[in-house]
Amino acid sequence: MFQQQILPPGFPMTNAFGYGGIVTDPGTGNPVFFRGIPGPTFEAIRGIPIHVQWINDITSPQPFPVDPTFGWANPNDIPTPVPPFPPFPPGFPEAQSPVPIVTHLHGGETQSDSDGNPTSWFTAGEMKTGPGFFKSLYTYLNTQQPTTLFYHDHTDGITRLNLYAGLAGFYLLRDPNDPVAPFLPSGKFEIPLSILDRSFNDDGSLLYPNVGNNPDIHPYWVPEFFGNTIVVNGKVWPNLDVERHQYRFRIVNESNARFYNLKLSNNQSFIQIGSDGGYLPKAVELSSLLIAPGERADILVDFSSLVPGTKILLLNDANTPFPGGDAPDINTVGQVMQFTVLDTLPVPPPALPATLNIIPALTPNAPTRILTLNRVQATNDSKQQLLNGQIFMAPTSEFPVVGSTEDWQIANLTPDTHPIHLHLVEFLLISRQSFDTARYLADWTALNGTLPLDHPTIALPVGPYLQGDPVGPDPNESGWKDTVRMNPGEVTTIRVRFAPQDVPVNGVVPGENLFPFDPAFGPGYVWHCHLIEHEDNSMMRPYQVIFGPSQSAMHD
Q1: Tens digits of residue pLDDT in 362-417
Q2: Contact call for residues 256 and 322 (beta carbons, < 8 A)
Q3: Are residues 118 and 220 in the same domain?
Q4: What's the confidence (pLDDT) of residue 71?
Q5: 129: pLDDT confidence band, cut at 50, 70 and 90?
Q6: Looking at the 3D structure of the chain, how many domains does it have?
Q7: Domain for residue 363, yes or no?
């Protein structure tokens, strides 16, 4: 644990966890040690693999309340407690220390033993390790399209706490042969923006709830966390002095649960050129940008025609919880950061190419998967969130064949929008369509029983319940995605090809592995909600890539 000046000067410093290591000082070019929130930024080159040794050096206890009433890493193998529960602090000291971690490269095409599987955690000094194929030296091959990735902790059942404490950072993948890059701002005009919300105690320490919504069930777990300040690149409500130039902002929403609908206070439009998995097919002009936890957006903002001294606020008007919650306070979380225009010579931006990327029209060649997003209701909000009615540790039920292309139809039976993230692959958003949620839920429950299920889920086709016409992706969702918003009352269809991004549209068949690694090796992958409190309890499921139908029975 270390201290960082996250609050404005004059306020106390904040204790935090953070990634650190030897980095290149951008001013001198010399190697220096750096750690912080966010962590050091990786600048990787496409086609050049890197090896990263992740070291857990956390010897202090977890500062936020670990809730051991649901599945989690549990390095001390403490039994699941029963009421009455002690207040936090102290909570359960054997759950607070040691602190396990495991790092996931979000959006990376990575073999699963380097993917950061939630069960592959380890403690300081690698004294204790999880059951999921422990390894701390990871290999990132960097063969996918250039894009904005980020890395963060992914430990089973405590991701929300480790991420809240500061364990996240940028990973920028560049391509020396990128034909679009010469038209884009670079150097000091290219800035990654990590946006998240936090709350603070009077002593400057981070504040996270220590009483659950249903404390007789889960003493410390809350269904979502929303902070009362906004932190950008490790600073609360910062100002950025900008020249009269176009800037490239590579945005990641690192909040636990807060959505942002970003717009500029002068009503100026901006251009989105990329999303999770790389460039969009073409540039999209926007007046606002909706971004969920785990999503990324690559945008261009042109300050060249503005009067020196102009101050512009980056605003947020997304409801919390999203979409049906309260509007943000315009004086606090309704503001993200400020731009102040300097008195410099104006530099108009060049025109962008008409085409930025070629996105293939994939054709399914495997059965459609029908899945659900479920909420286990309790007196005061939810008791648990589930995928397809199953807890995380239930037997694996998804065994996609390498090289196959599948449609996943996911029916949202909850009142929340969930950003659903798949590890290993980038996919395409096909459609969203309204459906008769109440009738589908009643029939699904009659077919499957009460939650969480203690048997394999029986799929219920969504066709008879669909209403109206399907709606295709928004223009800024038409590229490769690894995290997509799934709205309440809708069936969201994504098309998932278990192959690298750059394979030609008909260039792979089921059973053919074109990844530069064995996707069946290691502990396997997961798909989950990226509302981190949901993910921890227990809106996450494993999946295992296989090489043919005959292998499926081996894993059942």
Answers
A1: 999 999 999 999 999 887 777 999 999 999 999 999 999 999 999 999 999 999 99
A2: no
A3: no
A4: 95
A5: very high
A6: 3
A7: no
Q: Pick from 304, 315, 371: which is nearest to 343 by CA?
A: 304
- Asked whether residue 7 is assigned to any structural domain, the reply reads yes
Tokens of 479: 């590229």
Which CATH number is 28's domain given?
2.60.40.420
The CA dihedral of 388, 389, 391, 396, to the nearest 10 degrees, is -50
- pLDDT (tens digit per residue) in 213-225: 999 999 999 999 9
Taking only the tens place, the pLDDT of each residue in 256-299 is 999 999 999 999 999 999 999 999 999 999 999 999 999 999 99
Q: What angle do CA 185, 242, 18 make, to 5 degrees?
A: 80
pLDDT for 555 equals 32
With bands split at pLDDT 50, 70 and 90, how would you rate the model's confidence at 554?
A: very low
For 403-429, b where at least 16 C-beta lie within 10 A, e where not — what string? bbbbbbbbbbbbebbbbbbbbbbbbbb
pLDDT, average across residues 17-38? 92
Tokens of 530: 């990226």
* Same domain as 492, residue 383: yes
pLDDT band at 27 (very low <50, low <70, confident <90, very high): confident
Q: How far apart are CA 7 and CA 190, in angstroms?
A: 24
Q: Are residues 205 and 169 in the same domain?
A: no
Do 118 and 239 sit in the same domain of this protein? no
pLDDT at 499: 97
Average pLDDT, the chain: 96
518 token code pair: 């064995």
Report yes or no: 184 and 190 within 8 Å, Cβ to Cβ.
Answer: yes
Same domain, 399 and 466: yes
Question: For residue 497, what pLDDT band results from cuts at 50, 70 and 90?
Answer: very high
Structure tokens at 404: 């196959």
pLDDT at 98: 98
User: What is the distance between the alpha carbons of residues 508 and 545, in angstroms, rounded to a whole number?
Assistant: 15
Tell me the residue range of the domain where 130 lies.
2-176
Which two tokens mark 355?
């085409």
Alpha-carbon gap, residue 440 to 430, rounded angstroms: 21
SS3 410: strand
In a domain, 362, yes or no: no
Query: How far apart, in whole angstroms, are the C-alpha atoms of residue 397 and residue 507?
Result: 27
Residues 193 and 172 in one domain: no
Tell me, yes or no, whether 360 lies in a domain: no
- Which residue has 């659950």 as its token pair? 212
Q: Which of 322, 341, 360 lies at the terminal end of a domain, its last residue?
A: 341
Contacts of 487 (CB under 8 A, 6+ apart): 323, 412, 417, 432
Residues 36 and 8 in one domain: yes
The residues, any chain, with a CB within 8 Å of residue 12's CB and separated by 6 or more, are: 203, 204, 205
Q: Name the residue with tokens 């951008």.
A: 26
Output the six-digit token pair for 532: 């981190």
Alpha-carbon distance of 230 to 253, in angstroms, equals: 11
Last residue of one domain, picked from the residues 127, 153, 176: 176
Specify whether the CB–CB gap between 527 and 386 falls below 8 A: no
pLDDT of residue 500: 97
Do 170 and 315 sit in the same domain of this protein?
no
